[in-house]
Amino acid sequence: MIVADKKPMEEIIEQIRSYQNVLILGCNECVTVCEAGGKKEVGILASALRMYFLNNGKDMRIDEVTLERQCDHEYLEEIRDRIDRYDAVVSLACGVGVQFMAEKYLSKPVYPGVNTCFLGVTEKRGLWTERCQACGQCILAYTAGICPVSRCAKRLLNGPCGGSTKGACEIGKDVDCAWQLIVDRLKALNRLDDYEKLFSIKDWSTDRAGGPRKVVREDVQI
Amino acid sequence: MRLNYPSSIRIIRVPCTGKVDVIHILRAFEKGADGVYAVGCMEGDCHFTSGNFRARKRVEQAKKILDGVGVGGERVRMFNLSSAEGPRFAEYAREMDQQIRDLGPNPIKLALKQAA
Asked: Would the pLDDT of A195 be above 80?
């Protein structure tokens, strides 16, 4: 899922200070799971903002809506009938949702309510870690299901660098060396021969290096 | 025991303090409560293992938010006692009542009155 983190409330306050009617718009998907922008967080933020502005003598209307998703037309359409009531929107969706919201409602200022961080997993409640960088050409088949692109600080493709020490990366003792993990798992799978295979230079054109990306699937287009 | 505790306190029963969420605490202040305190079981004695620890964390979160919005985090507290400690329940109630009286009314309540 896409992992996001809460933005400091002071930052959001500064952004919406000049408006009168503001909509706090949550998303039921990834940001709900990582407890940054779901219905619950929308409620907490909206309540806190209402109290802040009331306490500072500003009569401000702050409403709450949480959509199923903010990255699909049909769900964003659900607020079309009421969007004119608001001067601005604070979207607690990931950066994708914020942008799609901005694209669909051109004249409505949209502010991000979270910092979008990475594609990752919930290791345990309150701990999310990165697993994928969406490089566009998955090599997990050859690396025992552990991604050196996202988990090696140098994105190395042919074994660890000299900074790998006792299974940890040189950037921090609490960061696993991706290649140590890969070798350990290849061993467990009895596939250590795969480690001998050399990767040729990776084509990074499907990564961000090739500019904004798109997936076109004519077979599913109507 | 027929113990007395301040009449300013309104009890909201929950199955476990683990049910108490940040939003419940914030809503209470938004509606004009002067203070909120959660009374959970003794730490380590939660029937649901960790409900009172969850509540403590949420009380801490609420404190931070209330400090940020200018209501004051000191208006929220968490107490722990066993269900057999009636006298202590009354004692905590008096303590909280006094603490809130010292702090004065919730500024949101005053702002709401002014806006009305």
From this structure: yes
Band of residue A209 on the pLDDT scale cut at 50, 70, 90: confident
Q: Which residues 6+ apart lie within 8 Å of A154 measured at CB?
A: A161
Residues 17-46 of A with CB under 8 A from B: 40, 43-44
Nearest residue on chain B to A52, judged by CA atoms?
B69
Supply the DSSP symbol for B83. Answer: T
What pLDDT is attached to residue B59?
98
DSSP helix/strand/coil, A96: helix
Task: Indicate the CATH number for domain A2-118.
Answer: 3.40.50.2300
Question: Chain A contact for B11, CB < 8 A?
Answer: no
Alpha helices, DSSP H, located in chain A: 9-16, 30-33, 39-55, 73-76, 95-104, 148-151, 178-188
Query: pLDDT tens digit string along A13-45?
Result: 999 999 999 999 999 999 999 999 999 999 999
Amino acid sitting at position B66: L
Which pLDDT score is estimated for B75?
Answer: 98
Residue B108 included in any domain: yes
CA A58 to CA B77: how far, in whole Å?
28
Burial of A52 (0-12, 13-18, 19+ CB in 10 A): buried
Note the pTM of the prediction, 2 decimals.
0.93
CA A46/CA A82 separation, integer angstroms: 17
Strand-by-strand arrangement of the A61-67 sheet: A61-67, A21-27, A88-91, A110-112
* High-pLDDT (> 70) share of chain A, %: 100
Spell out the domain ranges in chain A. Answer: 2-118, 136-209
